[in-house]
Amino acid sequence: MVEKERSQKVVFLQALIVTIVLFNLGIFFGYNLESSRLDKINQFYLESEMELLDQAIQKDALDIVGLDCAGAIKANTAFADRIFEEAKTISRFEEANRINNDIIFQHKKFDLLRTLFWINSIKIKEKCNAEYHNVVYFYKYNDPTLEQKAKQGVFSNLLTELKERQGGNIMLIPIAADNDLPSVELLANRYGIKDLPVVLIDEKIKIEELTSVEDIEKYLA
Question: How far apart are CA 93 and CA 71, in angstroms?
Fold first, then answer.
């Protein structure tokens, strides 16, 4: 009997040790995976920041001797395409990760970068009489209601299809409007952005309801 109890204790201890080891390994690998995704998002940001900064400096330098509109529009279009692809990847990373302070901080940096790109895009369009359209998608990032989540899912899918159809004809710029960023709030107020989500086309047309891509394309003619 004593030997049997001792054997049961050994089995219990072994099972406990295995459970603890597996639990800690799960935490370790989960942490490493989350850190890897954060590092990837940060790398996206650093590369985009450098490219946009280079583009802005190039534009300012060319203003002195005359803006190379063809080059500026080409660079702007390429950056918009990059934003589109990165936004899809970052969204997948965020869905897989816990939303914590690090994720929110990274997202804020992208919101600022995209806002700067939007401003730069407006300037290039005005200076060069460019024919592309700025399509800014303001959405709620922090604690959206179920209704907002559903609506934003529809908006996101339709805007993705729009970008795939229109390509370089539009600058699709997604920006979270509720991340406590004064510059974003200033622009949102300037264009009367209140209830989210909202699509703003060419700083003139607000769309608050979407059922098809054609709902937007009719404003791009």
Answer: 33
pLDDT single digits (tens) 159-210: 999 999 999 999 999 999 998 888 899 999 999 998 999 999 999 999 999 8
Amino acid (1-letter code) at residue 148: Q
- Residue ranges making up the domain that contains 164: 2-217
Starting at the earlier edge strand, list the strands of the sheet with 205-207: 170-176, 133-139, 198-201, 205-207
Cβ(112)–Cβ(183) below 8 Å: yes
SS3 content of the chain, % helix, strand, coil (to 5): 70, 10, 20
Q: Is 145 in a helix, a strand, or coil?
A: coil
| Paired strand residues for 201 | 135, 205
Query: What are the residues facing 209 on neighbouring strands?
Result: none
Which candidate, 102, 89, 83, places its Cα nearest to that of 34?
102
Residue 14 exposed, middle or buried by CB count within 10 Å (0-12, 13-18, 19+): exposed
CATH assignment of the domain containing 196: 3.40.30.10
